[in-house]
């Protein structure tokens, strides 16, 4: 890379020139490669390991207006001890006002608390509100902040505005990790997914995340593939590793394993840990646990065995 990234973000013009200078995404190629990797089969022993790895990468999520303290506590208990000897999940993900309840429940377990600050899911609020939303969530005990980008500004080409918001939210995070949600289902093109990925990483994202789970399409394989290519290329260019989190619509063990194959074949094995790859999902964990049980015993557990998400 001939220009340093500090120079890239020096002005709206340089940032725009850099993002529009990224190679275009071959749409057909990306769709075909994702489809091809999605059909790879894996051996039974590898499948058992893949299921446990996937469980350890789950950001177990509840993001409903009707969420209660009781629901969040129950979800946290399941996150810490999914049952049957399965590993704990990576994190629980909740709205900011429920961070304190989650943090108290998972304390000392190693399960992180993530929160969707910044006027999630639309992001339609002032920067002051977004920064304060973030700071309050961190003060309440959030280890990770999942912010949404301003898709309106991005689609109008106001990249510096999006960049500055991410920088401001990152500053408000302090020690907490920042996941930047691109909401790829609203970005219209794969080229935009690549541009938004780079924009977020240049601005300081620790993770890039596909979706809020409130917009369709959410975490499609081609979009995750493009984001994995972006983090791989960003590390080659800068030496800094950024994580990836597909989220929204990932419900089955099959979906989870397809994602793991994609990670391995695209970004590489360095990303195959919960530190660098997460699966944001509200109902995936139950299917992973059921398939795990099936592999271990040869039969599915009864319907009452697992708590419903
Ligand atoms: O961040 C995670 C998503 O909101 C979860 O979406 P989901 O309910 O489709 O699994």
Automatic annotation (TrEMBL):
Query: Where does this protein act, in terms of pathway?
Result: Carbohydrate degradation; 2-deoxy-D-ribose 1-phosphate degradation; D-glyceraldehyde 3-phosphate and acetaldehyde from 2-deoxy-alpha-D-ribose 1-phosphate: step 2/2
InterPro entries, per the entry:
Aldolase_TIM, DeoC, DeoC/FbaB/LacD_aldolase
CDD domains linked to this entry: DeoC
- Residue ranges annotated as transmembrane are none
> Which EC class heads this enzyme's classification?
lyase
Q: What are the protein's UniProt keywords?
A: Lyase, Schiff base
GO MF entry, a single one: deoxyribose-phosphate aldolase activity
Q: Which GO terms describe its biological process?
A: carbohydrate catabolic process; deoxyribonucleotide catabolic process
Q: Where is the signal peptide?
A: none
Which Enzyme Commission numbers does its entry carry? 4.1.2.4
Task: State whether keyword Ligase applies.
Answer: no
Protein family membership:
Belongs to the DeoC/FbaB aldolase family. DeoC type 2 subfamily.
Q: Kindly provide the name given to this protein in its UniProt entry.
A: Deoxyribose-phosphate aldolase
């Amino acid at each position: 890379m001939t220009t340093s990234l500090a120079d890239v973000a020096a002005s709206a013009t340089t940032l725009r020139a850099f993002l529009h200078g990224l190679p275009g995404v071959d749409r057909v190629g990306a769709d075909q490669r994702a489809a091809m990797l999605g059909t790879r089969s894996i051996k039974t022993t590898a499948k058992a390991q893949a299921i446990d790895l996937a469980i350890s990468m789950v950001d177990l999520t509840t993001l409903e207006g009707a969420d209660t303290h009781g629901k969040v506590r129950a979800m946290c208990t399941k996150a810490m001890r999914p049952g049957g000897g399965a590993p704990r999940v990576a994190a629980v993900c909740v709205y900011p006002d429920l961070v304190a309840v989650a943090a108290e429940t998972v304390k000392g377990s190693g399960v992180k608390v993530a929160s969707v600050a910044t006027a999630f899911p639309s992001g339609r609020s002032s920067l002051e509100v977004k920064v304060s939303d973030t700071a309050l969530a961190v003060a309440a005990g959030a280890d990770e902040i999942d912010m949404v980008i301003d898709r309106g500004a991005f689609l109008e080409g106001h990249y510096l505005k999006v960049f500055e918001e991410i920088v401001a939210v990152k500053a408000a995070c302090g020690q907490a990790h920042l996941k930047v949600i691109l909401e790829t289902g609203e970005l219209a093109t794969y080229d935009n997914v690549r541009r938004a990925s780079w924009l977020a990483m240049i601005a300081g994202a620790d993770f890039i995340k596909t979706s809020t789970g409130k917009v369709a399409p959410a975490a499609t394989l081609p979009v995750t593939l493009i984001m994995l290519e972006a983090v791989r290329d960003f590390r080659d260019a800068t030496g800094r590793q950024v994580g990836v989190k597909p989220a929204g619509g990932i419900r089955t063990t099959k979906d989870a394993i397809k994602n793991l194959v994609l990670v391995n074949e695209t970004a590489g094995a360095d990303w195959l840990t919960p530190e660098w790859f997460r699966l944001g999902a509200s109902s995936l964990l139950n299917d992973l646990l059921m398939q795990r049980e099936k592999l271990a015993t040869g039969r599915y557990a009864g319907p009452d065995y697992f708590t419903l998400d």
